[in-house]
Design brief:
Layout: E1 19-34, E2 39-55, E3 59-63, H1 70-77, E4 85-90, E5 93-94, H2 100-109, E6 110-113, H3 127-137, H4 144-156, H5 173-185, E7 191-195, H6 203-220, E8 223-228, H7 231-234, E9 240-245, E10 248-254, H8 255-261, H9 265-272, E11 323-326, E12 329-331
Parallel strand pairs: 3-8, 3-9, 6-7, 7-8
Antiparallel strand pairs: 1-2, 1-4, 4-5, 9-10, 10-12, 11-12
The protein binds iron/sulfur cluster.
Residues 264-265, 302, 304-305, 308, 310-312, 315, 320, 333-335 line the site of iron/sulfur cluster.
C-alpha cells in the first residue's frame, strides 16, 4: 500500500463495554447429496460452533485463508443465508427468531459491504438511484430530502454530487467500493460487516478505502466486522482480531496482543507472512505444508493437525476447545490446555 493506513490501537479511544452483537454457537452446514434420490450423505461444515461478541463502537477483524468460512459466517449472521443452528443477538434482539417483516426492519441496523464492488451494484441503476433506493425502502426521507441525503452520502465517501447520475461501469474499482459504502451507510446502520472490501482493489487504492472505513466507523460510532484473508490488512483497523480455520475460530484477542504475542501455530504462520520493515517484527517465514483440508472431510482431533508444525499425538485424536489463556486472549490449541488423560 502506498498510503499509510491509520492505526486503531490507540488507548485514548477505548470501545464501549456494551455488547452490540452476540454470536453464540453459530453453525452453517451444507448437505452433500448423492444418488438418484439425492440422499444426504454428509455435510460441508462451513461454519462450526462459532461464538464471539462485538462491542458498541468496536472493530473486530476476522481473518483466515480462502474457504475458511468467513464469508459464510458473515452471511449467516445477517441471515442472507439461513443458519443451521446457534444464536445471533443484536442489542438483545434474537435475529434468527425474527419473521420476514421484522427481519426487513433489522436489515436497516445491520449492513454488509461486499468484496466485489462491481458485482454488488446494479449495472442498470445510477449511483444516485441505488443509494436513494435504500433510503426509500426504509422510508428514511421523502421528495427533495432523498436527493439531499444522497449528495451528503456521496460527499461523505469522497465522491462529487455529479456521481449521482453515473452508472457503475463509469467508475473505477475504488469509486465503486465507495458507492457500496455510501449505500450501506444510507440507512444509518449500527453494525457493518465488510466482507473483504479491499481484496478486489489495486494495492494503491486499498489504503484509501481502509482509511475511509476507519474514519466513518469512528465518526459515526458504528461497530464494524472487517473480514480479510490477510492479517496485515486488519492490523491497523481492528481493536480485536479473530482468526478462523476450517469453520472455527482458533484464536481471538486484542489486535496489539495478537501481533506481539500470537499463540496458535496457525496464527503464527499467518503472521510470518506479513512483510515488515521493523526488524523486531521480522521472523522466519513459516511455510505450512499441504492444502487446507476440505470442510466436507474435516480431520479428526485438531482440524489444523495435518499442517501444524507443532503437532503432538493428542492433536490427532482430541479436538481442542477455544479457551481463555490470559485476560481477553482465547486460543484453541493443546499447547495451552491440559491434555486429556487416556
Ligand atoms: Fe497444532 Fe496441536 Fe495446537 Fe492443533 S492442537 S494447533 S495440531 S499443536
Amino acid at each position: 500500500m502506498t498510503e499509510t493506513t491509520q492505526t486503531r490501537n490507540d488507548p485514548s479511544r477505548p470501545t464501549s463495554d456494551e455488547v452490540l452483537l452476540r454470536v453464540r454457537d453459530v453453525r452453517k452446514y451444507f448437505p452433500i447429496r448423492r444418488g438418484f434420490f439425492s440422499r444426504v450423505v454428509g455435510h460441508v461444515k462451513a461454519v462450526d460452533h462459532v461464538s464471539f461478541d462485538v462491542h458498541k463502537g468496536e472493530v473486530l477483524g476476522l481473518v483466515g485463508e480462502s474457504g475458511c468460512g468467513k464469508t459464510t459466517l458473515a452471511r449467516t449472521i445477517l441471515r442472507l443465508i439461513e443458519p443451521t443452528g446457534g444464536q445471533v443477538n443484536l442489542d438483545g434482539v434474537s435475529v434468527f427468531d425474527l419473521g420476514a417483516a421484522d427481519m426487513r426492519k433489522m436489515r436497516k441496523r445491520m449492513q454488509i459491504i461486499f468484496q466485489d464492488p462491481y458485482g454488488s451494484l446494479n449495472p442498470r441503476l445510477t449511483a444516485g438511484s441505488m443509494i436513494a433506493e435504500a433510503i426509500q425502502i426504509h422510508k428514511l426521507a421523502r421528495g427533495d430530502a432523498v436527493r439531499q441525503r444522497v449528495v451528503e452520502l456521496l460527499d461523505r465517501v469522497g465522491l462529487p454530487a455529479a456521481a449521482m447520475s453515473r452508472y457503475p461501469h463509469e467508475f473505477s474499482g475504488g469509486q465503486r467500493q465507495r458507492i457500496g459504502i455510501a449505500r450501506a451507510l444510507a440507512v444509518g446502520p449500527e453494525l457493518i460487516i465488510a466482507d473483504e472490501p479491499v481484496s478486489a482493489l489495486d494495492v494503491s487504492i486499498q489504503a484509501q478505502i481502509l482509511n475511509l472505513l476507519a474514519d466513518l466507523q469512528r465518526d459515526l460510532e458504528m461497530s464494524l466486522v472487517f473480514i480479510a484473508h490477510d492479517l496485515g490488512v486488519v492490523e491497523h483497523i481492528s481493536d480485536r482480531v479473530a482468526v478462523m480455520y476450517l469453520g472455527k475460530i482458533v484464536e481471538m484477542t486484542a489486535s496489539s496482543m495478537l501481533y506481539e504475542h500470537a499463540k496458535h501455530p496457525y496464527t503464527k504462520a499467518l503472521m510470518s507472512a506479513i512483510p515488515s520493515l521493523d526488524p523486531k517484527r521480522r521472523s522466519e517465514r513459516i511455510v505450512l505444508k499441504g492444502d487446507v483440508p476440505s470442510p466436507a472431510d474435516v480431520p479428526p482431533g485438531c482440524p489444523f493437525h495435518t499442517r501444524c508444525p507443532e503437532v503432538m499425538d493428542v492433536c490427532r485424536t482430541h479436538v481442542p476447545v477455544l479457551k481463555e489463556v490470559s485476560a481477553g486472549h482465547q486460543v484453541s490449541c493443546w499447547l495451552y490446555d491440559e491434555k486429556p488423560s487416556r
